[in-house]
Write a structure and sequence with these properties.
Length: 766
């Protein structure tokens, strides 16, 4: 038999209102007033104290006793004597004093117009009936209380200007009333989205169209003008050549837009202080120019850029073609050295233009003619001091890239180490082609704390130096390490680099020979994983010396990944994977090639493209000995080494392996029929590991090319970036949003047209 239980519910006690602190009308009917208040507000009133200054009627004493007992149960304090006032506009009884006696038999009329709490005064304020107040914490769940109480927050929200303006029943909105209520942060996001729609890599627009739309947005309203002006001038991009109208007006072939911009910045310092990034157009030689006429036009262009830099007091980055530095005075480098807010700088070092003095006092040829196995000769003290003084004001510099052309140097090696001491905010360092007398193990160990380090063709360091660098305490925040054609000869040194860098997320290794294992440490290969890192997310591994077979270093790395040595690895790029060892460790995919890969012609593997600054090598680098400390490098080390494996060819090879695996079933099923006949079926094969979170990535980085192995170098950073209109590359003329069909007139037809300009993109190595 099921048990039953009876639960009896009791109503909530009546709410206590501010009227309980007021007295009851002495002339009115108290019982009728109480009944009316309970029926209207579900609340009770408190009777006047029996110890008041004036006597009360006998009819009110019974009500007073009942109310006294109720409020005593609620532990409410008793009402003070002589300080009560009627809630519904009745008599006000002031405290008695000997100087102003008053008879209790002459009360003030409840309907007196002079009463401060008369019903007419409440009606004038828009309040009917008894006074309201917000519900207390104890009775907020009472429906009657929620309906009749006036919440403070709700009243503030109802009276807010935003809700008042957005009310659907409002028909008296002023012009731009809704727009003026939008926060400035919302307008900034809208303008940033507008800039992104123009400057995205897949966009058909260009920087000229972006600046045109920002100018139009600035003319919409005064409120939007301030934000549109910041979006327009904080990142100025002057891409492509000037228009024919500007060339005719200013009577010069190039630099017309820079002249107008400089005039604007000089006349308005407020706008000049907004400029943070500046992109200058690529220099154009005169129409009848020849090599015999000299480079005077280029010097004039650089001087014009220098004057534009001086007009931007808070410039942080200069993009575009970077002039070469030959240790002589140039206005453009002097202008950059005065910008204290500069955050990004790229040096293209040329051989010194002045002859160097020997110890015997005889003049010799320039350092470019003194190249040998030890590299170019050292600079003069005055030249080193001039390079050092250029960095004294760059306390905010975060990115520094240095590329030494063949024959150039920054020797002695202490010059670069002392230069870095002037850059306390440096976080990203990119060094390329520095000779041994400019950068060696001593410089490597003296580097400040960095977040990314890129060493490309730095032959002055050793495996021991890299190991010692990884064990230093200031490398605890290093997140990116790239070693390109750097003599990393020891596999144990690579294992120590992985184990000693706790924050390393991106590691790139590209060289023409594999790091080897010394014969004394061969027993360690039985303990897998030999190479391990718990933080690496992206790994680029390209050893070009074995194009047809897997070398020993590739085998050890593949076995380490398979044994779980890289638990955080998500992206693996191994262009040279002849046997598909690394492809089998990644997530299976349906296809790897791009839609147009099969129709492209394979490019030659010799030399860097024309956009680079180097010439083709005369001979490859000779193999090295199997030792962790051996540095027997040939004299051809100064020649440009072969670039990395072509990613286009790597994708085709990976796709061919994938298609061959489709013909070899991975699983077979045998189906038996009722008549005893059996049929065997096989599922389509694949390459990869089911459940693996590693993706087989064979695409280049942003700004890099397939021919160079997909890595961004300094030559790519100072290249045209898509600005030049050469070959089959098409530019933007502003017609991407032109309406098709009939137009009103010729002026409307040419409204959005502009000179054809390329779609420039900023290239970064970090």
């Amino acid at each position: 038999m099921a048990s039953t239980a009876t639960i009896k519910s009791f109503p909530l006690p009546p709410a206590f209102t501010a009227a309980d602190l007021y007295s009851i009308d002495e002339d009115g009917n108290v019982d009728a007033v109480n009944v009316e208040r309970v029926s209207r507000m579900n609340r009770t009133t408190r009777a006047a104290s029996q110890s008041g200054a004036h006597p009360v009627y006998q009819g009110t004493q019974n009500a007073s006793r009942s109310q006294e007992s109720f409020h005593t149960a609620l532990k409410r304090p008793p009402k003070l004597t002589g300080t009560s006032m009627s809630k519904n506009g009745s008599n006000y009884t002031p405290p008695t004093s000997p100087t102003s006696p008053r008879s209790p038999t002459t009360p003030r009329s409840p309907t007196s117009p002079t009463s401060p709490t008369s019903p007419t005064s409440f009606a004038h304020e828009g309040i009917e009936g008894p006074r309201k107040r917000a519900a207390s914490i104890g009775n907020r769940m009472n429906l009657n209380t929620l309906e009749t109480s006036s919440w403070v927050r709700e009243s503030v929200y109802q009276s807010s200007p935003i809700r008042t303006a957005f009310r659907p029943d409002r028909l008296d909105r002023g012009p731009n009333e809704l727009f003026n209520l939008l926060p400035g942060e919302v307008l900034d996001l809208v303008l940033q989205s507008l800039k992104g729609s123009h400057l995205n890599r897949n966009s058909e627009s260009c920087a000229t169209c972006m600046m045109r739309d920002l100018c139009s947005a600035a003319l919409c309203s005064r409120r939007l003008y301030k934000h549109a002006r910041v979006a327009l001038y904080e990142d100025i991009q002057l891409v492509g050549s000037d228009s024919a109208a500007h060339k005719k007006k200013f009577k010069q072939n190039q630099g017309n837009r820079m002249t107008m911009l400089r005039r604007t910045l000089r006349t308005n310092p407020n706008i000049a202080s907004l400029v943070r990034s500046l992109k200058v157009p690529h220099p154009e030689p005169p129409l009848n120019w020849s090599v015999s006429k000299g480079m005077l036009w280029l010097e004039q262009y650089e001087d014009q850029v220098a004057t534009l830099i001086m007009a931007c007091p808070k410039l942080e980055r200069l993009s575009g073609p970077t002039p070469n530095y030959d240790h002589s005075f140039k206005k453009i480098f002097h202008a950059l050295s005065t910008r204290r807010s500069l955050k990004d700088m790229t040096w293209i070092i040329d051989p010194a233009s002045t002859p160097v003095q020997q110890q015997g006092g005889q003049r010799t040829d320039s350092p470019s003619k003194q190249r040998g196995q030890s590299g170019p000769s050292m600079l003069e003290p005055s030249q080193g001091d001039a390079f050092l003084d250029s960095h004294r004001n760059w306390s905010s510099l975060t990115n520094l890239s240095i590329l030494c052309q063949p024959g150039a140097t920054l020797a002695p090696y202490r010059l670069l180490s002392k230069t870095l001491t002037y850059l306390p905010s440096l976080q990203h360092l990119h060094l390329c082609n520095l000779p041994p007398n400019a950068f060696n193990d001593n410089n490597l160990l003296s580097l400040p704390p960095l977040k990314s380090l890129i060493l490309s063709r730095i032959v002055g360091i050793t495996s021991n130096g890299l190991t010692s660098f990884a064990t230093r305490s200031n490398t605890s925040h290093l997140q990116r390490l790239e070693l390109r054609n750097t003599p990393l000869t020891s596999l144990p040194a690579l294992a120590r680099i992985f184990s000693y860098l706790p924050a390393l997320k991106y590691f790139y290794l590209a060289q023409s020979f594999p790091p080897v294992m010394p014969e004394t440490d061969s027993f360690a290969l039985w303990m897998m994983p030999y190479l391990a890192s718990s933080t690496i997310v992206k790994l680029h591994w390209d050893i070009t010396s074995h194009p047809t077979t897997t070398n020993e270093a590739d085998d050890i790395l593949a076995r380490s990944i398979e044994a779980g040595g890289f638990p955080a690895l998500t992206t693996l790029r191994t262009p040279n994977d002849p046997e598909g060892r690394f492809q089998a460790l990644c997530r299976p995919v349906d296809h790897i090639i791009l839609p147009n890969d099969r129709f492209q012609r394979l490019n030659a593997m010799g030399g860097i493209p024309a956009s680079g600054s180097f010439s083709a090598p005369s001979s490859p680098i000779s193999p090295i000995h199997k030792s962790a400390t051996t540095m027997s490098l040939p004299s051809t080390i100064y020649a440009t080494p072969l670039p990395g494996t072509d990613l286009h060819a790597a994708r085709l090879a990976a796709q061919s392996r994938l298609e061959a695996a489709h013909n070899a079933p991975r699983f077979r099923f045998t189906i038996a029929a009722d008549d005893g006949l059996a049929q065997t079926l096989g599922t389509v094969g694949f390459i990869g590991t089911l459940g693996s979170k590693i993706s087989y990535h064979l695409l280049p980085d942003d700004g890099a090319t397939d021919e160079q192995g997909g890595l961004v170098d300094v030559a790519d950073m100072v290249g045209d970036g898509g600005e030049a209109l050469s070959g089959s590359r098409e530019g933007c003329t502003g017609r991407w949003n032109q309406k098709e069909g009939e137009v009103a007139d010729k002026k409307e037809k040419e409204k959005w047209w502009h000179t054809e300009r390329g779609r420039w993109q900023r290239i970064e190595a970090v």
